[in-house]
Every structure is written in structure tokens, then in C-alpha cells.
Amino acid sequence: MNLKKPDTWPDFMLCMPAKQKPLILDQYIWERKLDGIRVQVSSKAIRTRSLSLFDHEIKLRSGQAIPDHLLLDGELMSPDGFTAVQGQLTRRQWKKLVFVPFDLLQFGGKPIWEQNTRSRLALLNEYDPGPERLGPGQQIPMEWEGVVCKPNCSYFPGRRVQWIKWKNTGVIEAYVLRFEEGTGTWAGMPGKVIFGVNVKGTVYELGAASGLTTVQRWQFHHQPELYLGKKCRIQHYGMVKTRFRNPIFLGMADDADTQPAG
Hints:
Layout: E1 13-17, E2 29-32, E3 37-41, E4 46-47, E5 52-53, E6 71-77, H1 82-90, E7 98-107, E8 110-111, H2 117-124, E9 133-134, E10 146-150, E11 158-167, E12 170-181, E13 190-199, E14 202-209, H3 214-222, E15 231-236, E16 239-240, E17 243-244, E18 248-252
Parallel strand pairs: 1-11
Antiparallel strand pairs: 2-9, 2-10, 3-4, 3-6, 4-5, 6-7, 7-8, 10-11, 12-13, 12-15, 13-14, 15-18, 16-17
């Protein structure tokens, strides 16, 4: 492991966060925000914002090895979720990692980051289509974690207003259905809140929310009857099929009505 980046690689171009949901306009490129860690990858090295490894077995999604003449910018992900990626990378568990490139910085062994975005993506498309993209007027799907907006410009190292990211966050009211037991230090105590909704007498489970404080764990453990079936507030990052992504328990709702009987 070496913490020095390759001399010919540019620093990462970083996004500015947006608070409001953007309008999908045709002069920009709208890509699905990916849930992993940012990396630059060549055939011989892989670099995150904190470390560089000078040998790896990362491949394109097609199964092809990274071509020698390319330097790719993208996201490294894992089927085990975002929190698993860093550990799998440092342990060199290559088969558990998936690399999705979204930009091309060197082609034919020469820098091309001064070219505009669409030109770089046209070359990238020969090897990988990159993340899903939206066209003008399309809605951001609920199952997406968010979207990244890119103008047709050069690649500028550092945090730039040219790249904007918006996370598909929201807060819903749901009902506390039950508690999932914690692990490790919290074994024997509530670890997560299982929440859902009641629609015309049918209960639909929507996920397991983390983020419980020590006080909340104690209260739920010793007096569960005060909370089961009551309204709570859940923050989320979009949906995956019929469940919310990364739900976080924010607390009981002020209007804590009892859930209708199923």
C-alpha cells in the first residue's frame, strides 16, 4: 500500500451538494448517483481520496481487464453495501467489488480531461456505458439514491459548482411494528425499528431503521407497549423495490395515534 498518488493523475473533481430537487434540463448530463466510494483506476493502480494501491484485480463490468491506455474515474461498490467497500478494498477482496466508471481521464495513454464531458463519455462508452442517465423531462426514480448533474465541460480538480449532486432524501410518517434485536454491545436490546404502514387493514413492512440512541433502546426494551403501533418519523434515501433505502429513525411522531388493527 502506498499513499502517494501517481504523478500523472489529476486530483478528483468533486460535486457541490444541492438542497433542492433539480429540474432535468437537456443542456446537462444527468447520471444516477451511485452508492460506493470514489476511485480512479488504471490497469496498474487504483486510487481513492485517501490511499493508492499499485496492483489490483479490478475489472470492467463486462469482465474485461482495465485496458493499459485508460485512466477511469468512477465508483467502487459492493453487493454487501456501502459500508463493506472500504474494508474489502484494503483486504484486496477484488471479487466482491464492482467498478462502475463514469468518466474517462486518459485515452491512448494521453490526458483528455481538458476535453468536454460528452467527448469523454463517447470514448468511455466503447468500454462501459457508465451509470444510468436521464433524458430531458424525465423524473428521478424513487429507487435512485440521487442524481449527479454534469455540464458539458472540462474536468476541473477540486470541489466545483459545475458538478452538482442531489440526494433523494425524505421523511415519512410510519408505524412502529416491532424491534429487531441488536448485535455486539447491543445484544439483548433493540437494534433497529421495524416500521411499516397499514393500508385498508393490511400491514406493509417498509424496512428496518437504524440510528437509535441509548435512551431510546432502553425505553423500547423496558416499555415496548408505549411505542408499538404508534407513529414515528423515518428519514430515507429513496426506495429499493418495496423498501426504503438506508432508513434512519428520527423519533416518535407528535401525533402518536395507535395503528389501526390489521
